[in-house]
Amino acid sequence: MVGPVSEVKAVGVRVALDRKPILHGVDLAVAAGSWHAVLGPNGAGKSTLLRAVAGILPYRGEIHVGGRPVAGLPAKQRARLIAYVPQQPQLPGDMTVGEYVRLGRTPHLGYLGVEGKEDRAVADQALERLDLSGFAARRLGAMSGGERQRVVLARALAQQASVLLLDEPTTALDLGHQQQVLDLVDELRATEGLTVVSTLHDLSLAAQYADELTLLVAGEAVARGTALEVLTADRVAEHYGARVRVFDDGAGRPVVHLVRS
Ligand SMILES: Nc1ncnc2c1ncn2[C@@H]1O[C@H](COP(=O)(O)OP(=O)(O)O)[C@@H](O)[C@H]1O
Ligand SMILES: [Mg+2]
Asked: Quick check: pTM over 0.90?
């Protein structure tokens, strides 16, 4: 379903917003077909890093996706390579769910911009995969927060890019839909070689799904590796200012629990 597999590689990425330095030389190496989670306290620069990788923010340093520098990619090519789901998407309230998800097909349309059967089939499949088939005619303004989050994900899937960038994709979702969305993304990763870079504020959830993690603190990567390597109680205490205990989920993945003093 997605295009050729693509790795993501960033070296020494620096970003300033309103002339204030936010990222101070961040590296990122994500193998094609793997899932990488970017973690860190509020304001660490996670969303900024994702926007830079998405090619929608000026940066210094190098960011290559599928071997090509994102900064130089024309928008249409970039959209075929990278699907980006922002933390707070702005949705046109009077557009229907079906129309919005079909927008994901825009980078694939030909010269005249006419949708074909294939485009409609891909959009319908994305709706179905996110439990939204019954909502196609509903206006976005009449959807709940969690439903809207699934609509934005459906649009990203309809885009059929080989790299998926997800900024806090589960914050508005109930437990069942969190699992459904993350399982779906993981299935696409495993079966079609989708490369995933996501921020997730739930550390235990990140540990369940990501192959590798980067811990970002104040615009710098302070740790990277597997969840077991990165998510130690001491490190979480140091960088989040939180008292936690780290358990094993029985399958070798850490579970991070807050503990009361
Ligand atoms: N337009 C902006 N101008 C100046 N500072 C900004 C702007 N947008 C975000 N920031 C600041 O950049 C830092 C990183 O923000 P962000 O990447 O959203 O963090 P995170 O996603 O890790 O919570 C924060 O301190 C935030 O206040
Ligand atoms: Mg953020």
From this structure: yes
